[in-house]
Design brief:
about 30% helix; alpha+beta; globular; seven-stranded mixed beta sheet; 5 helices
């Protein structure tokens, strides 16, 4: 798979792209392991093709491969580029696809004049904390979802 990853280039999707349905399926499969592990449940449960179309309009969706082997949502904020819904097909994990998309997010942040890429991951997902640390992110905060008095998410940042 490493040879495949070296040939993949991030491709930005438009709101009219027929591959959005495949992106939604990829996210649902990739995030399914969280079911029963995180509280509150993932926002992935509320995702629809229409929500992905809106993400394309207000931010960006980038994929690797057709059909998509990996995807990421990027949303400009005043002080960073927010990275969300990073998903990699299970059969393609370990091939560097997440790194390609994270590095691409850093490049996009530089192009947009933003100083950092930021993301959130759930407190329970320790393996994600380790992965993001290996990808150059540092934990900078913790937040709680409405109705929770303990942190439910950790915020990570990577300067660009």
């Amino acid at each position: 798979m490493t040879g495949v990853s070296s040939r993949l280039t991030p491709e930005r999707l438009a709101a009219s792209d027929a591959r959005l349905e495949a992106v939604l399926d990829l996210i649902r499969r990739s995030f399914a392991f969280m079911e029963g592990r995180i509280d509150p449940p993932s926002s992935m449960r509320r995702l629809t093709v229409e929500a992905l179309q809106e993400q394309c309009r207000r931010g960006e969706i980038w994929i690797l491969g057709t059909p998509p082997l990996a995807c990421v949502f990027l949303t400009p904020k005043p002080d960073c580029l927010y990275l969300g819904k990073l998903a990699v097909e299970e059969s393609s994990r370990g091939a560097g696809l997440a790194r390609i998309l994270v590095d691409h997010a850093a490049q996009r942040a530089r192009e947009l004049g933003l100083p950092a890429v930021e993301l959130q991951t759930r407190v329970e997902l320790v393996e994600n904390h380790q992965t993001f640390s290996r990808l150059g992110f540092v934990q900078v905060g913790a937040t709680a979802h409405p109705g929770y008095d303990q942190p439910t998410s950790l915020t990570f940042r990577r300067p660009v």
